[in-house]
Amino acid sequence: MSEFPKGIFVTGTDTGVGKTIVTASIAWNLIQSGRKVGVLKPVQTGTIVSGPTDIEFVQSLFGEDSPLDVACPYMFPDPVAPLVASMLSGERIDIGAIEESYSKLADQNDTVIVEGAGGLQVPILEDYFMSDLALDLNIPILIVTRPDLGTLNHTFLTLESAKRKGLDVTGVVISNYPWDPGIPEQTNPELIISMTGVNILGILPHDNSISVEKGDIGNIKELASSRLSPKLGGTFDLELFLSSLE
Hints:
By secondary structure, this protein is an alpha/beta fold. Helix content is about 40%, strand content about 20%. It has one domain: P-loop containing nucleotide triphosphate hydrolases (Rossmann fold), CATH 3.40.50. The chain contains ten helices and ten strands. The two termini are about 30 Å apart.
């Protein structure tokens, strides 16, 4: 595997697209390559829901033992955007505290993977968004997108937003890819590449054995290796995959 950056910011085209599973998969691959990895979830909302939080799911995969208040400095019970969740809880988010957590993890690890909430334009403060946090942390972003109808628009708009903000986009991962793809799923990967010029660094399939909400890691270790590209520590061959769709 080529040298991996000191940090990477995992964002999505929407909420629920699979950022946590992609984050966990990258972390697993990097650890298998001998790197020490820390994971940061700057803001977690919806903790009132039963089951593990995103950061707890990721940590359970490889036994990462960073204190929870460092790995996830802000947790709010309501399943809404960070700005709204913080307002409902009466606690204003301090960006400096998030940056301090990142610095601590960066000092202790070879790589820090930061998992955002929702997409780039999700508000953290009234005038401060996930894209601003990625920019302030000065790390490249990885965009997680879905495979089906509508993803071309969502992916293109996310990339346009990243470009306007001046973010460095390392690539795209398509998550939850069906085992029996229809025409949109078959054609979207190549269209994403041709429309945006950005590399697809993995295509993770749908797997019923994996559930963040239930804390089930299922086949995630095997899929991390086989369905993420060498740039993300795996063995996935995009050209071979695309040729299989023809």
